[in-house]
Write a structure and sequence with these properties.
binds magnesium ion, 5-stranded mixed sheet, alpha+beta, single chain, two-stranded antiparallel sheet, Heat Shock Protein 90, 9 helices, binds adenosine-5'-triphosphate, about 250 residues, 2 domains
């Protein structure tokens, strides 16, 4: 086992347990005051902040686990509903612009109301082709991780609008486009690299870890898919992903 593998094993085995115990305990303190005692506003606020961060660390770890599994060739063969994966990815991604959105989006069915609510927030979805109605055979968690990361970035960097389209009759094709400031050509080569070093990062661009897209790229490569990027300064950004169905 090389150094990298043992580090990943350490992350998976030694961090998942304690982190989930921490979240469960904080949840108990917040939601079972009859058993654990009453909380004042400042305590509740502090616990909510700890919970949010414990959850963030957990999702980060889960993303790493999926990347590790994909590098090992471990895929779950599932019949995936792409509209449902898109809905869940959108709900998670919208949380960054409006934490109340998750509740609003989960209170409506995957119907016109759902898409209207998104349009009110500048997100336009178009689903066509085979996978609008039939299932796509692949690993659901990994598909969701790819789609959610691309949507989160588009929401983070857009000016006003995000267009998402799903198509394809054999390979699944997902396109996520925004009208943000774009990615200059000299930066396009390294945005897929894991943990962009601070020295490589353009000045003034400190947002995020630079982890999301490197995971997306590894997942897509191990799925024998393709990701392409069209962008220019001031012209917005469009990521297109093509993934073949899982064969084995
Ligand atoms: N849609 C986009 N528009 C403009 N720049 C983008 C877009 N998507 C990614 N980038 C650039 O690529 C970099 C890498 O993206 P990546 O998703 O890996 O990291 P991040 O969003 O900064 O952090 P995180 O690890 O939380 O995802 C970003 O920091 C940003 O500079
Ligand atoms: Mg990101």
């Amino acid at each position: 086992m090389n150094e990298r593998d043992s580090l990943i094993d350490l992350l998976i085995h030694d961090l998942t347990g304690p982190l989930s115990i921490a979240s469960t305990s904080i949840n108990n303190l917040l939601n079972k005051e009859d058993r654990y005692g009453p909380l004042n506003d400042r305590q509740r606020k502090a616990l909510n902040m700890i919970l949010r961060n414990a959850n963030k660390a957990q999702s980060f770890l889960h993303e790493m686990i999926e990347v590790y599994r994909s590098e090992e060739g471990l895929f779950r063969k599932e019949q995936c509903s792409i509209p449902h994966i898109l809905r869940d990815s959108l709900s998670e991604a919208m949380e960054i612009i409006d934490p109340g959105m998750v509740e609003k989006l989960s209170s409506v069915d995957l119907s016109d109301d759902f898409f209207e609510l998104l349009e009110d927030n500048g997100v336009f979805v178009h689903i066509e082709g085979k996978y609008s109605a039939s299932s796509f055979t692949h690993d659901q968690k990994k598909l969701q991780q790819i789609i959610r990361n691309l949507i989160t970035n588009a929401l983070k960097y857009r000016r006003q609008r995000v267009n998402i389209s799903i198509s394809g009759d054999e390979d699944l094709v997902v396109m996520v486009e925004d009208d943000g400031s774009g990615i200059p050509p000299e930066k396009q080569d390294y945005i897929f690299k894991r943990f962009l070093c601070a020295k490589d990062k353009p000045k003034g661009d400190e947002r995020g870890l630079g982890f999301g897209l490197s995971c997306v790229k590894t997942l897509i490569d191990t799925m024998k898919g393709k990701i392409t990027l069209t962008s220019g300064e001031g012209k917005g950004t469009c990521f297109t992903v093509r993934i073949p169905p899982l064969q084995t």
